[in-house]
Amino acid sequence: MTRVLIRRLPTIVIGTLVAAGVLLLAPVDASLTVRLYLLFVGAVLLATLVGATAFAARGEPSAFERALAPRRRRPERPDELERLERQVTLSVENAFDFHYRLRPALMAAAGAALWRRHGVELEDGERFVPAHLWAAVRPDLEPPVDRLGPGPSLAELDAFVGEIERMRG
């Protein structure tokens, strides 16, 4: 603010000298000259305040401006990831859910790994798939007898995924 006021000081000094010269040297009404001088000083002060406001506005945005600014959204998690997380949770709790929800995804991943690595379909890949994984992904696996029994543990699911990753090479 002081910097803006110092910039306007020469203008006020020149205006004061002009008003004093008019009062002393020109045959005009003194009250009109004083009114014009006060109008001039008011205009300079108004310009000074506008300049100070503009200078202050260059700083950090106000709380109001921050509230109006569009908020950055956190990146959303992919729907497929959330769906797989739900399937894993349900599959650990329930053998039926493992068989009909998560097992098809494991079968697809194992089939893709077999095809990529050995060029064979899942149905023909028993000799390339570790026995523990084959017991879970073999195409002719019957649904569980105890549908409400627990599914494989998280450690077993982690082992299945690790074996599929190793098969991919």
Describe the structure.
The chain has 169 residues and is an all-alpha fold. 14% of the residues are buried. It has helices at 2-25, 30-57, 63-68, 79-93, 95-118, 131-137, 154-168. α1 (2-25) packs antiparallel against α2, α4 packs across α5 and α5 runs parallel beside α7. 70% of the residues lie in helices and 0% in strands. The protein is rod-shaped, with a radius of gyration of 41 Å. The chain has 2 domains: 2-68; 79-168, no CATH class.
Q: What is this structure, in a nutshell?
A:
By secondary structure, the chain is an all-alpha fold. Helix content is 70%, strand content 0%.
Evaluate the radius of gyration.
Answer: 41 Å
Query: Please, how many helices?
Result: 7
Alpha-carbon distance between the termini? 69 Å
Helix content: over 70%
Entry keywords:
169 residues, mainly alpha, 7 helices
Topology:
Blueprint: H1 2-25, H2 30-57, H3 63-68, H4 79-93, H5 95-118, H6 131-137, H7 154-168
